[in-house]
Fold this sequence. Notes:
By secondary structure, the protein is of the alpha/beta class.
Amino acid sequence: MAFSWSLKNLPKQIFINNEYVGSKNNKKLSLYNPKDGSLIVDDVSLASEQDVDAAVAAAEKAFPAWKKMLPNERRNIMTKCTLRCIWQIDKFGGESWPQKDGFLKIVRNEPLGVTAGIVPWNGPIGTIGLKAAPALATGNCFILKPSEKTPFSSLALGTLIKEAGLPPGVFQILTGDGSTGAIIASHMRIRKVSFTGSIATGKKIQEMAAKSNLKRVTLELGGKSPAVIFDDCNLDNAVMWTANAITANTGQVCFAASRVYVQEGIYDKFIEKYKEAMKNKVKEVSAPDKETTNIGPLVDEAQFKRVAGFIERGQKGQGKLLVGGQRIGDKGFYIEPTVFTDVDPTSEIHCEEIFGPVSVVKSFKTEEEIMALANNTNFGLMAGVFTQDINKALRVASDFESGMVGINCVSLMFMVSPFGGSKESGVGRECGIHALRAFTEPKTIMINMNY
Ligand code: NAD
């Protein structure tokens, strides 16, 4: 299966019933290339209410047969169109409870029906798999709404979906902006929305779900994740993980370790090495279409201005600029990996999600002091602790108020274990068996054995 898309030949129409079709909306999306700001296209479909209704109707029609298909058959088709993450479907057979009281209880995991995923721009392919794979594997039909900033990787999937033999209506792709997302979140016949994006939008989606049909909601939201580095750590390991964490994907990662706390005994040494590592990262910044590039530009001008704004304001009394802070080149949205030290713990660069390659570093004396600061936030996605004392590592891991904790590592995830945040970083979990539960509802069947 090969893609034949090129910049001149990108898919721009929505995908319903295994066909690319024009939207009923006159409004279109414009897309710009982040490497130089040039216009790519200005006519990508923006799905309207009528388009969402058409996608829902197609999905409802496809649902009964898809639901009845054996899980392994569904998996084989999905694997052909690169939707993996679903090996646990074999082990998701439900439960039964013995009939000692005269009633045999069987618990089935039932699909919900028409489900949807609303995804952001910073992981436009990865987030599709996290949502579509468990949705389809458990027998639901699925509607994908990619970000208005990154529609093409989603739309290109349409070709694979058709070639892999997914029945028409099982997987629809509706490009659009927040208006399309809101129609989906408020739709009376969509039974579940799995959302990844900002906290502000996540809260709106939960509200729309509640006001419409109480559809089920999973929310994967933002973070401002701490890495706590103790005197007794392996210093080079701590530097490597924290420098990679804040520069991968140009820092546009929800679980990036953006707050780095270093115990005072190794603070100076850490700063020297971390500064060097971040300076070296500049050499990895280049155009996204070059095979050797590790760090690309920020996604667009708006994100560039947002990150640059944080850096500019940060230098006005919030902290001390250690390294970076400048634009790279004079076109495109490239920015130097940037570190602030001596930050005011109440300042915006310390407290808010910047979503760029910008970290803050602060020294600490005691575990008690730093755990209070690390947890003093409404975010709770990821945390990391660096130490060679296993007792301390496990104690701190337990004390972090976050959905995920790395010991001697940070900002990573695995498909088998729950992914998601506590507090305002999210509701529910993705990956592994938790993802399958999030797209099903238990149904209890009670059999009277005395009848
Ligand atoms: P965003 O909330 O602006 O948009 C995300 C998606 O929601 C887009 O598809 C957008 O079109 C849609 N949307 C916008 N307004 C809507 C509305 N009113 N109703 C319904 N849908 C609407 O977020 P973004 O800027 O695309 O992504 C960045 C954010 O995503 C960051 O905060 C980041 O931390 C978070 N994120 C979280 C995770 C995670 O797994 N926890 C992963 C990646 C990104």
